[in-house]
UniProtKB/TrEMBL annotation:
Its main location: membrane. Gene3D superfamilies: 3.55.50.30, TonB-dependent receptor, beta-barrel domain, TonB-dependent receptor, plug domain. This is TonB-dependent receptor. GO terms for molecular function: siderophore uptake transmembrane transporter activity; signaling receptor activity. It is a multi-pass membrane protein. It holds the Pfam family TonB_dep_Rec_b-barrel. The lineage of its organism: Bacteria, Pseudomonadati, Pseudomonadota, Gammaproteobacteria, Methylococcales. Keywords: Cell outer membrane, Ion transport, Iron, Iron transport, Membrane, Receptor, Signal, TonB box, Transmembrane, Transmembrane beta strand, Transport. Residues 48-99 form the Secretin/TonB short N-terminal domain. GO terms for cellular component: cell outer membrane. The keyword Signal applies. Residues 1-21 form the signal peptide. PANTHER family: FERRICHROME IRON RECEPTOR-RELATED, FERRICHROME OUTER MEMBRANE TRANSPORTER_PHAGE RECEPTOR. GO terms for biological process: siderophore transport.
Amino acid sequence: MTLTIKPLAVAIALISAPAYAEDGKRHFDIPAQSLATALQQLSAQSGTAMLYAEQSAAGKTSPALQGEYTLEDAIRRLLIGSGLIHSINADGTVTLKPGDGSSATTLGAVTVVGKALYETDPYSSDYQRLSSSTATKTDTPIMQTPMSIKVVPQQVLKDQQVISIDQALRNVSGVIGGSDANREFFVRGFSTYNYYRDGFPFISNWFHTEDLANIDRVEVLKGPGSILYGRAEPGGIINFVTKQPLDTPYYSVRQQFGSYSHYRTDIDATGPLTENKDLAYRVNFAYQANDSITEFSGGERVFAAPMLRWRISDKTTSTVKLEYSDIKTNATNPLLLNPDGSQQGFTTRRQNLNDPWGYTEDEYLMFSMNTEHDFNDNWRLRHRFNASFMQETIRNITASGAVDPLTGDVGRFFFQQNADGRDYMNNFYNSLELTGKFQTGAVKHTLVIGGDYQRTDARATMGPVFGLGGSNIYNPAHLAEIPAIPSYNTFRYEQPWFGVYAQDQAELPYHIHILGGLRYDYAETSGDTHYAVFGGSKSKDLLVNEDKVSPRAGVLWHPLRELSLYGSYTENFGAANSYKDNGIALPPQTADQWETGIKTELFDGHFTGSLTYYDLKKQNLPMQPCQGCPSQAIGEAETRGLELDISGEVWPGLKLIGAYSYMPFAQTIKDSVGSDKIGKRLHNVPENSGNLWLTYDFQQSELQGLKVGAGIQAVGRRYIGYSEAIKTPGYATLNLMVSQMWKVGQTHVTAQLNADNLLDKTYLGGVYAYGMGLYGMPRTFVGSIKVEF
């Protein structure tokens, strides 16, 4: 190919020689536009001549480039998704040429041991990610991964002013969230309380809420993922990827203010601690306080996460992190529901049967350490350790029984957890993993071999008090002080879990990719229950041992850069975590899934999409027939459906992220405790649900920095419980945003306003299988001022 030297670039290079900082970086300010124009501006701002064939840049676009970069990093950033590679010549000029698809240096591709540039750019405005490690534990292009993966990147979280998990996950197909008080989510029809942080299992329960102050992005692997993660729910893996220390200093402060006395401060600071940048830090801090539309309801939280990264040598790096959060929320009493999904008696969202002193408090501390050693360019050893500790305290009044339709009278009882102040939930995780790349003949392999050990220890004391007298929804009677607890039940369990696994990603000729893996798990569950309430004092001891080998296999054909076709089969294993009325553990939960799909990557990697069909079965699904009742195990449940996910930039400045789920089949197909549930639709699983969010960055110079956005979230009708006795209506909410960014020297100042549920739709967000629910968020406005430098 003949390379043409761009005359303008050479002229600029000869007459302008801008001074670089001592670290080789300078400031660039290049908007998203055509690649040819971006390269001209890069040449002008760097004083570097660009040599390339004009046709190689024709019809291609580039992302925005704003901030401090070396020339090398600036070129890489502009060339992401272009298919071009670059080299810096001895005379300082830069040569660009089309990359060989098999070349390890092709721009936009990510190797196992490398990092994409957008992982280290706090100013990145990308709405799509081209690679993910959640599905395979290797940073693999999504187009070459035979599973369904959705990534919600940092810019989406910023544009939507996301501060809660359910706000982030509404961008993912097949995920139905709860409300602020309920951290249960349904992925492909099955419930999960389990999350992961950088691949670590994360302590969670019904009430604990995750703060997103130090989260860079959210990655969701659809379907079973226990082969790499051990115990997991089969619907999917929800993995929060945290922000990492940077070699370039970056600081930001964001102040939010909004409806219902919402107040939140976020601080983010990172940079090197030593001149050679071997030691770097990052600190994230957040404080939030808010009221609610519901009386006596609100909350306060504090979150802090310091992190330190040490490059011990050019081959060894260790990162340590500490997280602390204290979350206190005033309780909202769940609504008692009628068969048509309407609430029993309540006439406004303001009413609350709970007392002003009712609250839930979660205190959480976590320490983690991640050490990586590269033997060479192809082999890496990684050790990870995580320890987390949580204590939860609950003091709540809860409605009991049905509301009298004539008088409005309703029963109630007091519920207390951590009755003696000695409850705990501790989790420990330890893993060792070897990743390597090698070749056998014409087949390229990426091998992962590892083992992990995790242990959960928990103790909970729970004490209900009855005989408090009833209340009335029209004239609630509130207690002046917390009732005394005469006795309480104590629950304790220990759950050690050990697993070993192996996975091979093989790249064959003709763009065929095969993934295969096996995992062996051995799990124990032991504990005891001491009943001082519900029938007098008694105790039950529990000891269960379980093991299983689980396979996973997938094949993908990538015939065109813009197209991939794949199919996969996966099995899942989960230990017993519920009990029958006699204190004996339910049988372990297992699952299997078939999946097939098509993926696309358009506009030089600026837009990605996937369409997936799945058939997922779960055995021994636990079900709670009533509030406080022991669980039962349904024999088998099955969900089948289609999922569509799209994200990216479809026109200069116009970005979108969308999700749609169609689940026509979600039923109990085997019932080991009776036949009344066979053929009935599963709890809290709509047939149709979706979300679409669009933003537009104005490209005109006189409007530069102005952004507007709009989105809609829709959820179809859902059954509550497993007998189709209660059905809630569907709903749709409208969300808007507008922001303006100004540059003041090297500082970015952004003012932003978001309106969620603009039309103030009244709907049920979180629902409980025993016939209760919680209101979704009303119309809220959140404004913010953010300063970055």
